[in-house]
Amino acid sequence: MSKHDEGRRAFLVSVAAGAVAGAVPNARAQTQEGQATNAAAAAPIHAHADNAGHGAFLNDDDAAVVAAFAERLMPGAPGKPGARDAGVLNYIDLALSGAYADLQDFYRRGLAQLDAYCRNAHGAPFVKLGAARQDDVIAALEQGKAPGFTWPSAQAFFNTVRTHTMEGLFADPIYGGNRDFAGWRLVGFPGAQPLFTPEDMRKGQAFMGAPIIGLQSQAKS
Asked: How many domains does the chain have?
């Protein structure tokens, strides 16, 4: 993993560590353009039974772009789960077919503009670019320096995908992401626990026990 990847992971993990206790989204957030976004579903939604990671809304091409984009935002490494490991694509796909249905056109337009920008600037679609070039593209979006974006703006698209990537990493697994509690384990969040022992309460370090089994895990059995 490059120093650039390590820095991005460290930033996202530090942000999540301060907010993951409220990881199950329950309000509406505002993007930079004022585009209201639902934060996760009011009712639980389960991962696709075939574990394909998409199919509720995203087609194969768009799913590949979203998966690659999210992985560059939160790259995986040996022993360190990234966006793909945590099932972020599955989370976003399910959300866009449900709680985030009002953002379907936002994503369609954003992905089309991203494809056009990458082809014009780099001669290839986003998924065909190397990791370093993908990082350059993402940085251009974040800084509003990617021409060709009208609605959504480059920055609004970046901010929205980053927010949804964070949700997919750290929300309750019942919403389709945070596979096997990968995000929670990454930041040492124990999840819901029926009981903490007196010894647990006296410890100065993070609780290391496994999260309580969620509804999604129970459904598998």
From this structure: 1
Please count the helices (runs of H) and the strands (runs of E) in the chain.
Answer: 10, 2
Beta strands in the chain (DSSP E): 28-30, 36-38
Range of the domain at 37: 3-220
Torsion of CA 101, 55, 70, 157, to 10 degrees: -30
Q: Which residue has the tokens 């895990």?
A: 217
List 36's β-bridge partners, or say none. 30
pLDDT in tens, the chain (221 residues): 565 555 554 545 554 444 454 444 432 333 333 333 333 333 344 444 334 578 899 999 999 999 999 999 999 888 889 999 999 999 999 999 999 999 999 999 999 999 999 999 999 999 999 999 999 999 999 999 999 999 999 999 999 999 999 999 999 898 999 998 899 888 887 776 656 677 776 766 666 665 555 555 555 54
CB 31 within 8 A of CB 37: yes
